[in-house]
Write a structure and sequence with these properties.
By secondary structure, the chain is of the alpha/beta class. Helix content is 25%, strand content 30%. The chain is built from 2 helices and 5 strands.
Length: 88
Amino acid sequence: MTVKVKTARQLPAAPLDAAQIQQVLVNLIKNAMQAMTKGGTLTLQTGEGSDGVWVSVADTGGGIPQEQINRIFDPFYTTKKTGSGTSG
């Protein structure tokens, strides 16, 4: 697996909870790594827009099947056999 990091040189302060943002990023990165079963590229980016700062986590994994896409924001939904989610 290849990791590309494209971070902004300087970002303004943002009213974020550091612990929560860290946990979100850990979860996104873990999921991205698991989605790329045959290698791939994980890209992490940061930047600034007109309405604040942003963070992007992207991977070259297979994506989310259409039949599951409507559930991705359901709390604790998962398709994995183990973890904190409940499969549906």
